[in-house]
Amino acid sequence: MDDITILRIIATVLSFVCFLGIIWWTLDRRKTRRFEDASRLPFLDE
């Protein structure tokens, strides 16, 4: 394989792992409450 192909494979795998990490972080049950509270902030009257 060419060097560029190996670099593309590594970049793809790292991007996919990063994507899975973001999904895991947003679906973490401990953070769900915080995200729900933050989603209501624009609708609160000050």
Structure summary:
The chain is built from 2 helices and no strands. It has 46 residues and is an all-alpha fold.
What is this structure's SSE topology?
Elements: H1 3-26, H2 29-40
Protein described:
The chain has 46 residues and is an all-alpha fold. It contains two helices and no strands. The protein has helices at residues 3-26, 29-40. The relative contact order is 0.08. The radius of gyration is 18 Å and the shape is elongated. Helices cover 78% and strands 0% of the residues.
Strand content is: under 5%
Shape: elongated
Task: Tell me the number of helical segments per DSSP (H or I, 4 or more residues long).
Answer: 2
Major sheet details? none
Instruction: Work out the helicity level.
Output: over 70%
Order of helices and strands: HH
Q: State Rg.
A: 18 Å
- Kindly state the number of beta strands: 0
Straight-line N-to-C gap:
61 Å
Structural class call reads mainly alpha
* Mean pLDDT score: 89
* Low-confidence regions: none
